[in-house]
């Protein structure tokens, strides 16, 4: 009778068990991949909708995105439109603006190189405008968000910001309505039409169209938001 407790038997049993577990995990991961990708896309739509004042869940984000967003555009570093698509278009030959790697393309734009930056046109309750994705760096890591501008791409209609690892109660406050509401009505151009962005400053002049208050105790994160807007919005200023 074979000794079931021999080293050979134990090694063989362990190898088979590991192989079976690996196959199960691989099959499960593949089965869930499409769901994960859908959730990522829906989270992105949810954030874009929040920037224009539309609250939604992951379940209805796609439907509301199709309702309020009327066109997806791609522009180059000079602000010229190089591609146009309908929302949720089934694109195979060319990368859809929604799927553009924003961080990579913004890095190219910053260096003055050829790039494709996404721009999303929306229409809501008689108001038309554009939503622009932005990305930057806070104190501890990546920060990002979306900025909704009016049709002239001058006045901010709304913003939404998020972060990877900012300090709770300090830098993480960039996600709060209190901080984000400050940007509504601010302008990214001065009185002469020159792009100046919106500065995030300690003791900002509340009457200034180009300044908002920084978060107390989170100077570096606040500065990161200001720098992110300065660098990311410029190609869109026209």
Account of the 3D structure:
Helix 1 runs parallel beside helix 2. This protein has 238 residues and is α+β, with helices and mostly antiparallel strands. The protein has helices spanning 7-51, 61-68, 102-110, 177-180, 219-233, and strands at 69-75, 81-85, 117-124, 127-137, 142-150, 156-163, 199-201, 211-213. It contains five helices and eight strands, in the order ααββαββββαββα. Strand 5 and strand 6 (156-163) form a beta hairpin. The strands form two sheets. It has a six-stranded antiparallel sheet with strand order 2-1-3-4-5-6. A two-stranded parallel sheet has the order 7-8.
Key words describing this protein structure:
alpha+beta, globular, 5 helices, about 25% strand, about 35% helix, six-stranded antiparallel beta sheet, about 240 residues
In short:
The chain has 238 residues and is α+β, with helices and mostly antiparallel strands.
Spell out the blueprint of helices and strands:
Layout: H1 7-51, H2 61-68, E1 69-75, E2 81-85, H3 102-110, E3 117-124, E4 127-137, E5 142-150, E6 156-163, H4 177-180, E7 199-201, E8 211-213, H5 219-233
Parallel strand pairs: 7-8
Antiparallel strand pairs: 1-2, 1-3, 3-4, 4-5, 5-6
Structural class computed from helices and strand pairing: alpha+beta
Percent in helix: 25-40%
Calculate Rg over CA atoms.
Answer: 23 Å
Strand order of the largest sheet: 2-1-3-4-5-6
Mean pLDDT comes to 90
The parts where pLDDT drops under 50 for at least 5 residues are: none
Beta strands, count: 8
Strand content: 15-25%
Distance between the termini: 84 Å
Total helical segments: 5
Largest sheet: 6 strands, antiparallel
Shape: globular
| H-E string | HHEEHEEEEHEEH
